[in-house]
């Protein structure tokens, strides 16, 4: 049962047939991990907290720097030198004291993810680190948790989700085999336009809410490419790869 306070706070989404009181209860019961609290993680975490996702785990080992403020909308000048995960947790709690927010002020390595991902219902990959992305892909598949992944470089963004809790989903390594990948430039090296992160981060939050509500999810195994210069959004179906080192049939004994 939702409290009177919750009915009031979430009234504008509860009145939607896609959400309703039942949907709001699902969101309140949900446990979600956000890895990376930068340009994508900022809108993602703000929207999930505002929507009343009951438990948020925020994972980031970085501290706030002045050069983050151009795009990482969770932070203000007085947060400089403070751990992002802890600042973000305080900001979200201030926005919505009805939810539980846990800060994990360290990087998400594979061992840590193996211990913690089973304790949440869904994960959002908001990192700009390829090694972490492969670890998240691997662990979410092992544990059977859905994941919404995104990245933005310059004016170009991409978004894709995998639901490893059901059937035979392809995975990120099917799409981008690890041995063919070189570490791409991160935002520090390549530059990025802030609002493109807002667009893609908002789409990530949308897809996460739809997954939690049990609504159809357009980005499931479909890579969405967004060009901020033309506003073009292009979906590409992803096929499973039999030789995938993470999920491929040919790799199984
Ligand atoms: Zn795969």
UniProtKB/TrEMBL annotation:
<dbReference type="GO" id="GO:0008641">
    <property type="term" value="F:ubiquitin-like modifier activating enzyme activity"/>
</dbReference>
<dbReference type="InterPro" id="IPR000594">
    <property type="entry name" value="ThiF_NAD_FAD-bd"/>
</dbReference>
<dbReference type="GO" id="GO:0008146">
    <property type="term" value="F:sulfotransferase activity"/>
</dbReference>
<dbReference type="InterPro" id="IPR045886">
    <property type="entry name" value="ThiF/MoeB/HesA"/>
</dbReference>
<comment type="similarity">
    <text>Belongs to the HesA/MoeB/ThiF family.</text>
</comment>
<dbReference type="GO" id="GO:0004792">
    <property type="term" value="F:thiosulfate-cyanide sulfurtransferase activity"/>
</dbReference>
<dbReference type="Pfam" id="PF00899">
    <property type="entry name" value="ThiF"/>
</dbReference>
<protein>
    <submittedName>
        <fullName>Thiamine biosynthesis protein</fullName>
    </submittedName>
</protein>
<dbReference type="GO" id="GO:0016779">
    <property type="term" value="F:nucleotidyltransferase activity"/>
</dbReference>
<dbReference type="GO" id="GO:0005829">
    <property type="term" value="C:cytosol"/>
</dbReference>
<dbReference type="InterPro" id="IPR035985">
    <property type="entry name" value="Ubiquitin-activating_enz"/>
</dbReference>
